[in-house]
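dumping the sequnces here before i forget
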Amino acid sequence: MEAIIQDKVQDKINDLANKEVYVHLETTNGAYASHFDEEAYNVGAFIRNAQVNYQHGKIVSTGGSYRVGLKLDLGWVYAEGLTDFEIDEKDRLLMAGHDREGRLMVALEISETPFSHEADPDE
Amino acid sequence: MSKQHVVVIFPHPDDESFGASGTISKFRDDGVPVTYLCGTLGEMGRNMGNPVFANRETLSSFRKKELAEAARQLDIKVEYLGYRDKTLEFEPVDEMADHLKERIESLNATTVITHYPGYAVHPDHDALGKAVVEAVRRIDENYRPDVWMHAISNNHEVDLGEPQIVHNVEPYWDRKLAAIKAHLSQADGMMSLIQSQDQQAEQLERLKTERFYQYKFD
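..and the predicted 3d for all of it:
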């Protein structure tokens, strides 16, 4: 992954609009948050391979990190805190936000093909 | 002695190194074979390397290679159970127990090491520990392996008292550290989590002693 280049991401979001696409959306502060800090709560959510078709999407910058929103016919997909991106060899748009130590805090990924579901025995 | 076979069952690549690699080394030095049944590929891990080298879709491939290296350091076999990270608690316990029973029996396990359900912090740890206990319960009592359970929650001693099995693993510290470091994507992140917290010394000391509760079947 590399630091987000807003124009490149916006172009890819545009390419994937009005198509049946698969989304992976995730946010987490990790399973050990309240183990190492009693004041903290463990929070997290993920959805993998939600199939959507978005009318349009936009990446917006606010000093340091980015927000991405995708407008669906009947709703929205949204992620905040994205810092890095990659268009991988399967032509998927992968975006993630990491903390200073490289831990993933949020991820939003868009693909025209489903993301792998089972642990892949071939890899 | 030669009939012994230790089977370690944890959900993530690296659980074996952080939680039991000193004990594993001790068994290996005694000539006891050790197999690690790893529940998932750790594909939902939050540590992506520092600096970041993995992404959500490639992390599992890295973690598989890292575990292979740790297994080489520890001289153990690895088999994957094929579940998905962060989803174990949502699998039917019954099916998991059947699956695990079959694996435990086919390996002729004499000791099974797993997490203490309810005292293992991560939902995957608790869920797999629970399924392992259920799996062993279903084995004829004449053939049941011992079950050693690893408790890591902050409150576990208050509730459970002192564990029955306490291994000072300092003699194996170099191997334990090498195994932990083999998990390149995870080692930095976990170590810095440990070092950043208040009871740093206590947590590091904890890694030098491996403690297990022995499960008593009725």
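Chain A touches chain B at residues 1, 24, 26, 28, 30-32, 35-38, 46, 84, 86, 88, 92, 94, 96, 98, 101-105, 107, 109, 115-121, 123 (CB under 8 Å).
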